[in-house]
Amino acid sequence: MPYVKTRDGTDIYVKDWGSGRPVVLLHGWPLSADSWDPQMMALADAGFRAIAYDRRGFGRSGQPWNGYDYDTLADDLADVMAATGADTDAAVIGFSMGGGEVARYMSRHDGKGVIAAGLVASVVPYMLKTEDNPYGTPEDALAGIGANIQKDRAHFFRDTFFKQFFGVGVISHPVSDDVLDWATATAIQAGLKPTLACAQAFGHTDFRPDLAAFRVPTLIIHGTSDQTVPIDAAARPASVGIANSQLVEYDGAPHGLFATHGDRLTADLLTFLGR
User: Fold this and answer.
1) Positions marked active-site
2) CA distances from 122 to 2, 3, 48, 250 (A)
3) pLDDT digits (tens, 9 = 90+) for 54-97
4) Helices 139-156 and 192-204 sit at what angle, rounded to 10 degrees?
5) Helix-strand-coil percent breakdown of the chain, rounded to 5?
6) How is the beta sheet containing 21-26 ordered, strand by strand?
7) C-beta of residue 82 within 8 angstroms of C-beta of residue 74
8) What DSSP state is assigned to residue 50?
9) pTM
10) Which of 126, 158, 190, 218 could covalently link to 245 via disulfide, CB atoms 3.0 to 4.6 Å apart?
């Protein structure tokens, strides 16, 4: 069953590895489910059922014109969980933009079937800088993402966005150029409309009202040097607002933890899920 058809008819590409208690993994923008491959293998080897899917508009999933708001994306998660039978005793882990889908699912669908949650380098609770969210990202910076994508998407992703994403600098080079090339090629798989619409969604959706809906053990992981989603606007306030949460800070780590700190991330997820 490589595809699930959502309630609005969109085809969602699903990867379903292993057997056991389900762990549903949501990828970040602008990548695909493949970014979770090392963790999926480790989970399946450890006796879990690892499920990941390409968000609508990205990877191998359909590219409808509409549906890139978080209510619809949370409905997609609900549809994938129901279709795969993963809506009982599941853990749901969201990276970056995917954390917003976890939060909205917990509120919109009352966390149906979820017994544990994870937010990894997540945009939750609110990415936009406002008077009551002073550590967020300024509006002009978010607008610049869209403008650069429309001007030269490949160049922006390869030479600007993913270098910051993975913490690549003049001295620091925690991932190879091949990883930058892979990430860029994956990003270009997505449609232009979904890419722009999802950037608008994760940059401007306020998840603070969703935090009270987390009523399960929740692991929050974030790098202290994350320039893509700053920790002071994300993991730290999320850990305060989510009851029964555990915050693990990766000192000096950038946004793309699944690549730069993959072994540690895998170990922390397995420890958390094994409780």
Assistant:
1) 96, 226, 255
2) 27, 26, 23, 13
3) 999 999 999 999 999 999 999 999 999 999 999 999 999 999 99
4) 150
5) 45, 20, 35
6) 3-5, 11-18, 48-53, 21-26, 90-95, 114-120, 218-223, 245-250
7) no
8) E
9) 0.97
10) 218
